[in-house]
Fold 3-dehydroquinate dehydratase.
Amino acid sequence: MSDLLLINGPNLGTLGRREPEIYGTDTLADIEAAVAEEVAGRGWKVLSVQRESEGELIHALQDGYGAAGAIINPGALMIAGWSLRDALAAFPPPWIEVHLSNVYARESFRHRSVLAPLASGVIVGLGALGYRLAAQALLAKVPA
């Protein structure tokens, strides 16, 4: 059995309550369950980590080098999370960057991710569905 890392950055622990008009009403637990459902057929177990601190997210990545892949919503760390970027550059498995909102329809400072050039793919603006799609993409990218 392999693991799939599901990493969520700052402020994502309050999903469902935090600005639902932007981020939707699904909670992080709802998203975790949806991703687990997507990957269950492959026998993958979801290891979910949500932290407010960039350093703690880096530790989670380093601890997860043996994972089959990762889904990462870095939150605002996409903008200037250079230490997280360095950790992702060294992360061996494929990973998908996900954002609930369409960052390109929001403030201009959100239009560039320092992480995206390293990702296997990026999904934005599809709400919680984006996580399911990222799981499906990883299932397709990682040999059975």
